[in-house]
Queue: 2 jobs
Job 1
Amino acid sequence: MVSFRFPFSFSQPSLPKPPRATSSSSRFSVSAVAVTLTVGAAAAGAAVAASRNPSHSIVDWVFSSHRSSLLPWGSMTLADSSSESVAEPKTGFSFPATIGESRRLLGVGLRKKSVLGLKNIDVYAFGIYADCDDVKKLVGEKYASLAASELRGNKAFIDQLMEADIKMTIRLQIVYGKLNIRSVRNAFQESVGNRLKKFGGVDNDELLESFTSLFKDEYKIPRSSIIDLTQEPGHVLSVAIEGNHVGSVKSKLLCRSILDLYIGEEPFDKNAREDFLDNVASLAAHK
Ligand SMILES: CCCCCCCCCCCC(=O)O
């Protein structure tokens, strides 16, 4: 039985938010992250029981294509699963377990940035989502011989994950309340610009501009606004702000560069990357 390291757990809605977990061992503990259930107290009780039963962990259910047979509320539909969410521990900002038709949450993290080289501010919390079937397909096609424990540290596999045509979304949720869209554009210019140089060489100004120009001056991004960066089939990067599609750019290099910020070798939040890779490896073990 493979157990997931992702901190899905169910807590009663009235429990206080858990404190931020700092050590890597507690990061994934069931008390580190609260999952809010809105499907009713009966289901919450069943989920708590399930999460305490190692043979029926909630993550097994979340990632299983046979969810209905795993847990007591067997009739819960896929749509119901979107009413569960996972909170980023420090900010408490929550992320739904599933978005779109098939993308599942595999890691959450926090982007910090230093301002004027002085203080580190929490800029946004983020969730990393991937289509589990796409991930399993990649593993089945090319890495079937590797054990889950070997997969999570396999550089070639991780590179492939960022290059394959897998439906993925990075959801940003703005924490810092004084952001304007210009600073978002500038920040993307710097971070994505660096990755474009790293993977594609120097001549990518036009590509960078086609992406940053999607963030138009008229968009407002107060605290808790959501920006979705989604890799659609065919390496199309689609951007939505507060659920409104603002534009797309078809570029494998751009998609790869953006994913690298979150799951590459120098990610914004190492813990989030670890969570993501552990969960991908666990997924592979469920193939
Ligand atoms: C005052 C800090 C301003 C930082 C704004 C970052 C907003 C989103 C940028 C996303 C890419 C990145 O995290 O570099």
Note: The first strand starts at residue 35 and ends at 37.
Job 2
Amino acid sequence: MSQFTELRGLYHLRETIGSGGFAKVKLAYHALTGEKVAIKIMDKRSLGEDLPRVKTEIEAMKDLCHQHICKLYQVIETETKFFMILEYCPEGELFDYIVSKDKLSEEEARVFFRQIVAAVAYIHSQGYAHRDLKPENLLLDEDQNLKLIDFGLCAKPKGGMDSQLFTCCGSPAYAAPELVSGREYLGSEADLWSMGILLYALLCGYLPFDDDKIPSLYKKIQSGKYDTPSWLSDESKSLIASMLQVDPKRRVTIRHLLAHPWLMADAQCPVEWHSKYKRCLDEDCLTELAVHYGKTKKDMEASVSEFKFDYLTATYFLLLEKKMKGRPVRLLNKIRNHE
Ligand SMILES: CN(C)C[C@H]1CC[C@H](N2C(=O)NCc3cnc4ccc(-c5cc(Cl)c(O)c(Cl)c5)cc4c32)CC1
């Protein structure tokens, strides 16, 4: 295994676990906590015009800290490579999960869709639009919770979420009519359309608009006509219809989704979309870090709160993960760094 010198001593690299377009994803262990991570490795030379997408994704993921968004722990940039150290999601893509089950029951689809609504409500509240929402970009963690990935196409319009976007991007079958028509569009409205396609795929096991030829696919999308199979309940039909509105101004907004009857069924409360991560730093993690690095709590807090997405940021977040999973808030190999 060719050990990348930049990772030596920090991460123990294991096998390649997947690929995302222009990236290779490897499993690794974070040396100080022993926690598993996924390392997305990109070679700058082969990125070509995709280089801006990487920078977009890195900057967006530094801002986004949420229980249903794949966590970015550390970024290492060398002359020839980018390494993104990310939250490991052992159960793979939601896409494969749907395929394995043909389609999901309303109850199971509801559990997943509530998590997707929470993630998108949070992203939109931070001024971002994902713009590539699809089951391939939703991974399952060890507790079957969804984690949204691939922010390479996300947008944080300069003039806020209400300013128009032009770049036509994302996956055609999930793209909104205004997007495929090359008209100006709002990222947030395009995301809501993609969520309608997503919910339809969860409940039906196939796509509402599909065609081998792109031009006829686009015509179907622009028509907004899709068939609703008999097994769909009236509530789920109306929810899907509210998202698959061809006119973006008539499309439901994420705020309205939070308390939609279908999402609230099974006597649930409105979707709790806020991030569970607090702004303030966790005392137990700071203490363990201070002891390990031989620093005062105060100095440790000052260093951690810079969130430079260096090894310290990764170690803090992974210690926090351990705590949230009820594991001991302890660092391994307690070699005290004597300054
Ligand atoms: C659209 N698809 C093809 C994309 C594939 C990419 C590889 C994925 N993957 C595995 O193949 N094995 C397991 C596995 C475990 N943990 C992961 C954690 C993060 C990411 C990740 C995160 C971000 Cl933010 C990102 O941009 C990219 Cl590309 C990947 C991938 C993981 C993963 C599955 C989806």
Note: Confidence is low (pLDDT under 50) at residues 335-339.
